[in-house]
Amino acid sequence: MKEMKILSGKIISEEIRNELKKEVDNLSTEGIKVTLAVILVGDDPASHVYVSHKEKGCAAMGVQSIVERLPEETTEEDLLRLVQDLNERKDIDGILCQVPLPPQIDPQKVIEMIDPMKDVDCFHPYNLGLLTAGAPRFMPCTPFGVLQILKRSGYSTSGKNVVILGRSNIVGRPLSILLSLKGWDATVTLCHSRTKNIEKICRSADILVAAIGIPHFVSDDFVKKNAVVIDVGVNRIDDPNHPKGTRLVGDVDFEAIKEIAEAATPVPGGVGPMTISMLLYNTINAARLRNGKTTFEL
Amino acid sequence: MKEMKILSGKIISEEIRNELKKEVDNLSTEGIKVTLAVILVGDDPASHVYVSHKEKGCAAMGVQSIVERLPEETTEEDLLRLVQDLNERKDIDGILCQVPLPPQIDPQKVIEMIDPMKDVDCFHPYNLGLLTAGAPRFMPCTPFGVLQILKRSGYSTSGKNVVILGRSNIVGRPLSILLSLKGWDATVTLCHSRTKNIEKICRSADILVAAIGIPHFVSDDFVKKNAVVIDVGVNRIDDPNHPKGTRLVGDVDFEAIKEIAEAATPVPGGVGPMTISMLLYNTINAARLRNGKTTFEL
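Predict the joint structure of the above. Result:
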């Protein structure tokens, strides 16, 4: 029996970061320094870990990062004022605000306050709309990470049936849009909690993407023989055998599908590592656009 | 044999226009006059007909319309300046620019120049992005017309498999987004020229929407027993038996599906009449929003 291929986001991400580093070096020789500003409000431990990964990712390729740490009790008004200051600063190319935010702050207001030219998360409606219209300025990070894994593993999406589980604004919906644009040319079906006969729909997929946040939701019943399975889920479950008492698992039951699927991404080490690479990619493009250049393609 | 129901966009559109007229009257008693500005560049005969339909639609419900007619040789700069003037005018609620535009003008630049608060076609990236993020300000006119036909004919979309043929920025893609949002809750598959086994995919649809611009593309092979078929196509074909020598047909072979489908929209008289009603709906909402009110729901 042929063994299922493991699509390592870690390896692909490293390959991409090498390409990005070259581009940062090129810009640097032209006197262009790339800078990312990250806003972190409050004390959420996971957010602190994510932000520190972003800082390290920047440092490793010579992108400067500035982290604005604000207390939990920050008002919406103060946060919006900080965003405006960062919008105006000529030395900053990209801005992102780590979520979740404390309850007194409306995250949508913060997103809409960020200058769309500096919106490297690609969450601003203006940038989402450019994507929807087929002319994206920035790429939504996790969806574009999924596309890069497929492309760099030799899986064309053109004419393929792609089924996406999950209609979130961060993953499922923007990925469904990207994949059906000219150039990617997939036939996309977007499934969600109201979908009926979900297993059957998933079994029609040449490429199946799980992004619903339910541990091991996708098992053998969901996967067509030789399908490619991309697992975007990151779920923490109890595991008494693990030193921490918990461990991370995806939305896919990796063991259950390994004799059916052609290839799959593991969790951790699959889509996860791609997201920061795509953020760095957008930040470099923000710097390029602000300096009158076209975007750099991956 | 049960006869296929004909879903008359003409009748539904009249019903909606009566509701809209009431709202225009309500606003009028509060001293709010609703005004639409239409820009028409050049001499395209079809554009002149469309604009005159829009003017009549406005007049019939007490919405004021202003048509700015510009010569074919208008420069992009002059057109953009006109848009800016209309953006600034306090007496104008909605602005649209009739397409096609002459080749010296980039339509995307014109769309992006329109104040998103006055963009009643819902073509501006900011408004497309709000739609994609699940919080639309305005509704894309033809897609929302399709939803109103379904809703007002008693066909719920929740949990239904909807297949859309055609990924245009005006119909297919925004409709696919709308239908998969919470509230509409359909499981949507978006097909296009690169889709393989298109008949088979279409035969999985509870609701099939054709918007590809190919006369009679959808025949009996495409339609599941008791499916609902919505035909967005408007194609002019030669017909020596017709006084004009040509006639309008849809993307669906109406005769071929009439013993299979549960219901279908005719062409003409189906989706066509809905579009201007939805434009008027958006224009009324633009006036409401500019006067500090929430949007009026249909």
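The interface with chain B takes residues 108, 124-135, 158-159, 161, 167, 169, 173-174, 176-177, 180-181, 185, 187-192, 194-196, 201, 204 of chain A (CB under 8 Å).
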